[in-house]
Amino acid sequence: MGLIPFTLLVALTSLIAGLLGALTGLGGGVVIVPVLALLFHVDIRYAIGASLVSVIATSSGAAAAYVREGFSNVRIGMFLEVATTLGALVGAYLTAKVSTHAIAIVFGVVLLYSAWSSFSEKPSRRSRKPSQLAIKLKLNGDYPAAEGPADYVAERVPAGFGIMVLAGILSGLLGIGSGAVKVLAMDQAMGLPFKVSTTTSNFMIGVTAAASAGVYLARGYIAPGLAAPVMLGVLLGSLAGSRMLVKIRVSVLRLAFAVIIVALGIEMIFSGATGRL
Amino acid sequence: MSSDVDQKMDIAIGHMLRVGVTIAACVVFVGWIFYLVGAHGIAPDYRQFHGTPIYLAHPSAIFHGIGSLDSRSIIGLGILLLIATPVARVIFCIVSFAFQKDRLYVLVSTTVLAILVYCLFFRT
């Protein structure tokens, strides 16, 4: 394929992925890698490198909009970033040790999990037993609820921290934000309010990805000619998507996007298992 | 703890991140245009992994390439600026926690910064 059509197609695809990712809350990065690998036949390591760059861009680009709402918690985010950056370092290290087939299979499983978790928003499990550890670590706060500021304190801190290490490993291994796993740790394990979990998760994604990015750069995973259209496309798409959010009925779109993600997930597992990726 | 101070800090950080991303995206865009104009025809073969040239692997090498207006070095600079935005956020938090005399969180943020610096400069 000619360079100009190739690069424009990649940019357009990234734009759509960023748009759908922001509109559905599933994130655009998660479909970029399978689309580049399966449709454009890009080596999965280049795909992961380009995707990671776009993940940093969307996280930092959306931060201003998220913090204005007043839900994100800097201390909880920073505390858990110790876990995610350590995990990211391990994950980025693993990309060189693990075969691309295995990466493709793990990626497929994560895609299926992301799609599934977006339809199972269980109410936060709150045992109302704030741990002493959480209070010592100041893992508490309040957020603007309908009836005024509502207080919360984190629970099960070690479990949350452990799941965050896993989120970091997946992020570093797959070049994604792994927002779904981060929300799992904060919402389900630590019993934080859902809005606090999602906004703090977005805040953490950029820092986690920056940790992997250094390792990726040194390994040569970030190909400039590919990373540029992916980053610009996903960034513009997600910024546009976050502005359209209020005007569009999301439920149908989310179902459609989840179907795409499931299809890509199955294809990734199949391709990885048969050695095509 | 004062969540009001936290909130103001959050908003300041949010704006800083947005400015950083905007600058980074502009640099990447300029480099991308140079790349498209200067390239000859066929898309590079991304099917086979052969790593990117070593001159992108280290910041000093990227700066060297900027001097000769190498398009890939310009994109590389944009990506470095982009990576710098979350790192700047962590530094900003350290300063802010220090102002609030929150020793515990100065320590926590410094740990995160140390891991980031390790990944960026002492990577294996």
Description:
With 277 residues, chain A is mostly helical. Chain A is built from 11 helices and 2 strands, in the order ααααααββααααα. In chain A, a hairpin with a 2-residue loop joins β1 and β2. In chain A, α3 runs antiparallel to α9, α5 packs antiparallel against α11 and α8 runs antiparallel to α9. The longest helix of chain A has 26 residues. In chain A, 61% of the residues are buried. The model of chain A has no long low-confidence stretch (mean pLDDT 87). Chain B has one domain. Helices cover 75% and strands 0% of the residues of chain B. At the A-B interface, α1, α3, α4, β1 and α9 of A face α1, α3 and α4 of B.
Helix and strand element order of chain A: HHHHHHEEHHHHH
Helical element count of chain B? Answer: 4
End-to-end Cα distance of chain A, whole Å, is 20 Å
The helix content of chain A is over 70%
Oligomerization state of this entry? heterodimer
Count the DSSP helices of chain A: 11
- Which strand order spans the largest sheet of chain A, edge to edge or round the barrel? 1-2
Mean pLDDT figure of chain B: 84
Element string of chain B (H = helix, E = strand): HHHH
- The global form of chain A is globular
Radius of gyration of chain B: 19 Å
Largest sheet composition of chain B: none
